[in-house]
Automatic annotation (TrEMBL):
Name used for this protein in its record: LysR family transcriptional regulator, chromosome initiation inhibitor
Family as reported in the entry's similarity comment: Belongs to the LysR transcriptional regulatory family.
One Pfam family cited in the UniProt record for this chain: HTH_1
Entry keyword set: DNA-binding, Transcription, Transcription regulation
Gene3D superfamilies xrefs: 3.40.190.290, Winged helix-like DNA-binding domain superfamily/Winged helix DNA-binding domain (1.10.10.10)
Organism annotation: Pseudomonas pohangensis
Keyword check for Cell division: no
Positions of the HTH lysR-type domain: 2-58
């Protein structure tokens, strides 16, 4: 029989990114948290954490974390069904990983009603759409929005739709770098904006135009900051059409090549044994995104 106090300590260390924060969340000393994890490792006869910064679960640790996530959700199903159930033992928040552009555009309107009607709190972990699934594999989120179509073991994958990205820049940027009109050959030499090391959208855009190799670019790991850099004329970049509607209408941003875009498919991954709450949220998201994303 698993000791869930020990499992809670393991989950807290991974979710909080360290022993000190885990101790604060659990109301324990850092030493007590460490001892609980050591005891769990001793009982299982193998390490569960890699003691790096931040701590990372081993393969067995991931399996245990996945189990903890699913147990938390299943426990929530009992709330209101079993008289006298200690509500304080229920999870406070549902941990979901999603990309910054979804968070900046369609996510909040899509889940507002559901969260209010189900008294649901969220803990959002922002990851690039290309790598968000690693959070599911690590066992520290119950669901994620990402571009990967193949689910991890024990999870389901549902297509949400595609986000359309437009290559945009400010009018002053276009006048500065393309005074005689847009020139594709010059594009790799003018500043672009890239979200981060895992962001390949600008690369995909250039490759679709037949341009290969490197290009000069700023790095800006903020969806809102990305747009602000483009508005200020610092560079061109791929911006969600949903996010740039007003700026396009006002002429504050313009397309580099009208009609040339990149569509990024988005999928909703969630644990099979996630209980009624996760199943209901899945159905709600599938309905809510029909009017916000491009059908796949």
């Amino acid at each position: 029989m698993l000791d869930y106090k020990l499992l809670s300590a393991l989950a807290a260390v991974v979710e909080q990114g360290g022993f000190e924060r885990a101790a604060q969340v659990l109301g324990l000393s850092q030493s007590a948290v460490s001892q609980r994890i050591k005891l769990l490792e001793a009982r299982l006869g193998q390490p569960l954490l890699l003691r790096i910064s931040p701590p990372q679960p081993t393969e067995v640790g991931r399996r245990l974390l996945n189990h903890v996530q699913q147990v938390r959700l299943l426990e929530r199903n009992l709330h209101g069904q079993v008289p006298g159930l200690d509500s304080q033992a229920l999870p406070e928040r549902l941990r979901v990983a999603l990309n910054a552009d979804s968070l900046a555009t369609w996510w909040a309107p899509a889940v507002e009603d559901f969260c209010a009607s189900n008294d649901l709190l969220l803990e959002l972990v922002v990851e690039d759409q290309a790598v968000g699934l690693k959070r599911m594999r690590a066992g520290d989120v119950a669901a994620c929005v990402c571009a990967a179509e193949v689910p991890v073991s024990g999870a389901r994958c549902e297509p949400l739709g595609a986000m359309r990205y437009l290559a945009l820049a400010s009018p002053q940027f276009m006048r500065r770098y393309f005074p005689d009109g847009f020139a594709l050959a010059a594009l790799p030499q003018v500043p672009a904006i890239v979200f981060g090391a895992d962001d390949r959208l600008q690369h995909r855009y250039l490759e679709a135009l037949g341009v290969t190799g490197g290009f000069v670019h700023h790095l800006c790991p903020s969806s809102e900051g990305f747009v602000q850099l483009a508005l200020a004329g610092l560079g061109w970049g791929l911006v969600p059409a949903l996010q740039a509607q007003e700026q396009l209408a006002r002429g504050e941003l313009v397309e580099l090549l009208p009609g040339q875009h990149v569509d990024v498919p988005l999928y909703w991954h969630h644990w099979r044994q996630g209980g009624e709450l996760l199943d209901s949220l899945t159905g709600h998201l599938l309905r809510a995104t029909r009017s916000k994303l491009i059908p796949l």
